[in-house]
Amino acid sequence: MSLRKCLLFVLLAIFFRLVGNQAEHGQPVQRVQVKVKVGDTAVLPCNVSAHMNGETEDNLYIRWVTNDLSSNYVCEFTKGKSHPHDDYRNRTEISKEKNSKHLYHLIINKTRLSDEGEYHCKLGKPGKPGEDAASVQLIVQGREENVSVVFGETLAIRLPVTGNARVRFAPASSSTEADVCTVRQNTLTPANAYASRAALENNALRLDRVTFADEGSYSVIDVATGRVMKTAVLAVEGLVKNRELHEGENLSIPLCCLSSPYIEFCGPAGNSTADGVCQGHVERLTVQNGSLTLSNFTAKDKGKYIVREKMGGVVLTLTLTLKTKAIPVGTQRTDRRLIVGVIAGILPLILVVISVYAYKWCTKRKMERETRRRAEQTEEQFPLSEIKSFADVEEK
């Protein structure tokens, strides 16, 4: 072969390599980029309508492959059914949409960082290379989230997928990172500093008794790829409580992970600066056996209290108010019984008085009716006109 022919052959090979957007039969190849988060479902599109070449849908053979030469088969579609391969089994299928567009999308559930790469949708016959119908670049990204936890409570970081992972912690106050734990085959191995606080529950890392020292960034790293699957940024918040107490009442509020806290008083009698930072340490409130306590509450104790840990973080903001004395329940019941007893004693007397007055009224009415009846009888026997005539005769 002459030098000119060799040079022409090389140029043609380079040309076809650069314009690789054409399939074997000259039909355009779909080139798409798909981005998903770890653990989400990826849908890789493939439209074979331009590559049918007169074939009926029942005779189509669709094959999805990757550029990974060791195990490039992902999933096959033949005779109306999907057949996933190896690592994609139980989480991959080809979705056939029966319409005029002939769509055969590759669906990958619970994506992993190792799924990232280039995927090809091929149309052809079993055992043959087939014609490219689509080329999809899948990019799997790590997840990010912000988490807020109250001081002393539990932090839960859900792992994106089951498998081997390593969790590292970067404090917000420094640039030094440290291992928290490793997870292998659903078994958690904590680092020494977290031995008593870290556990695995329902595929989530649980960190108990959170303090301000735990604020920072937690990275879940895939052991297989060394890439970050998830980043959780933790912010620790203080408790906010409002309590209403009677005079002389005692107060006890459980507080976790505190030793020698600093307690400030911002009540009516306290001295507060313009920026709201209260001054003056309070001796009345103390921390005993893991609880904030106050004995024999008085009206002078009303106000707002701020409890700080040794690093200055606000662990608790407590507002105390004086509760007005209410009538004890026992006294209320006694008063009710007394009222009922009085009513029960007076009621018969009232009934007697009402009966006497009713009897007198009835008797009076009866006498009036009797007097009226006799007057009417007398008038019938001796008419008033005759009585007047007789009286006139006697007068003459």
The number of domains: 3
Globular, elongated, flat, extended or rod-shaped: what is the shape?
elongated
% residues in beta strands: 35-45%
Cα(first) to Cα(last) distance is 188 Å
CATH class of the largest domain: Mainly Beta
- Largest pleated sheet: 6 strands, mixed
Mean pLDDT: 79
Question: Percent range for helical residues?
Answer: 10-25%
The topology string of helices and strands comes to HEEEEEEEEEEEEEEEEEEEEEEEEEEEHH
CATH homologous superfamily designation of the largest domain? Immunoglobulins
How many helices? The count is 3
Structure description:
By secondary structure, this protein is α+β, with helices and mostly antiparallel strands. It has three domains: 27-141, Immunoglobulins (Immunoglobulin-like), CATH 2.60.40; 143-237, Immunoglobulins (Immunoglobulin-like); 239-322, Immunoglobulin-like (Sandwich), CATH 2.60.40.10. It has helices spanning 3-18, 329-381, 384-395; strands spanning 30-37, 42-44, 61-66, 73-78, 81-84, 92-97, 103-108, 117-123, 131-141, 143-150, 155-158, 165-171, 178-184, 187-190, 198-201, 204-207, 216-222, 228-237, 239-245, 251-254, 262-265, 271-272, 278-279, 286-288, 291-294, 303-308, 314-322. The longest helix has 53 residues, at 329-381. The protein is elongated. The termini are far apart. Residues 12-26 and 269-276 have low confidence and may be disordered.
